[in-house]
Amino acid sequence: MEKLLKRCRIRSPLVRECLAECLGVYILILFGCGTVAQVVTSQEKNGQYLSINLGFALGVTFGVFVSRGVSGAHLNPAVTLSLCVLGRHPWLKLPFYAFFQALGAFLAAATVGLQYYDAIQSYSGGQLTVTGPTATGGIFCTYPAEYLSLWGGIMDQVIGTAALLLCILALGDQRNTSIPDYLQPLLAGASVLVIGISMGSNSGYALNPARDFGPRFFTYIAGWGDEVFKAGGGWWWVPLVAPCIGALVGTLIYELLVEVHHPPLSSEIQSSCQEVTEGKSLELEGMEPDGGKSA
Q1: Given a cut of 50, is residue 294 above it in pLDDT?
Q2: What's the N-to-C CA distance of the chain in angstroms?
Q3: What CA–CA distance (Å, rounded) separates 205 from 288?
């Protein structure tokens, strides 16, 4: 068995990172959407709204544990985009990360759909719908509340994702508060939990383009049809675009209000002094001695 596993080993760092992101998001959506399926199909007999919050929070926690040592556990194209903007992640990897994150979400939604197939059929009476009293499309992806305007939905996603990035960047900022590595996944999950508790009623707090689009595409091909793209006044693009904007807003806020103001590290001071010294040495080397001037 060990020899067989060695033959399966992938040497490409990018491929390994993409597979880790795919599996991390798979775990996130498996637990998150699985919780929604249980709550909806049992008509809240086996869980309530807080169960959904906990399901997604713990899904994030274990998704991070699964992938962080290989890929950094972005689990979200909006997070990857923000890290690229900060210069902490190569732009070249952005489309690969985003694709495999969406793929992981798609596969997880398919798994939940398979696991809860009988329950969904029984609850919906065999009619797979997005709206109505027995709608099941919302098990997999997000839709706006009836009262929510398009502008209100965009702001909802921008604010929620900005809050997420503020928390994520703070957790990773060792110059702000040094947090043990083993606690970071737990606190990342806690940030998703508190966002869900405080900002989830408007549209289901997608906060993640991959989390929403992968399962939405699954429902499109699995029987819910094109209504998944038409419902909510064509809502589907909002969880794709607004979280990316919100992530950049949250990143900018944290950088401008906190991280940019950290005092320089001793290593940075030494490096700066060394550069100044080298610059002065070059200037001295470029000067001609008096004896070398022509009379």
Answers
A1: no
A2: 85
A3: 68
Amino acid at 77: P
In sequence order, what DSSP letters do the residues of 107-138 get, joined into one string?
Answer: HHHHHHHHHTHHHHHHHHTT---SSSTT--GG
Secondary element (H or E) of residue 143? none
Q: Locate 294 and state its tokens.
A: 């022509």
> Rounded CA gap, 221 and 53, in Å?
27
Length of the chain: 295
Tens of pLDDT, residues 100-152: 999 999 999 999 999 999 999 999 999 999 999 999 999 999 999 999 999 99
pTM: 0.88
Amino acid type, 84: C
131 phi-psi bin (left φ>0, alpha ψ -120 to 50, beta other): beta
Cβ burial 69-82 (10 Å sphere, 16+ → b, else e): ebbbbbbbbbbbbb
Measured CA to CA, the distance from residue 121 to residue 139 in angstroms comes to: 13
Q: Tokens representing 15? A: 């491929």
Residue 187 has phi, psi (to 5 degrees) of -75, -30
Paired tokens of 220: 């499109």
Distance separating alpha carbons of residues 275 and 255, to the nearest angstrom: 26
pLDDT at 231 over 80: yes
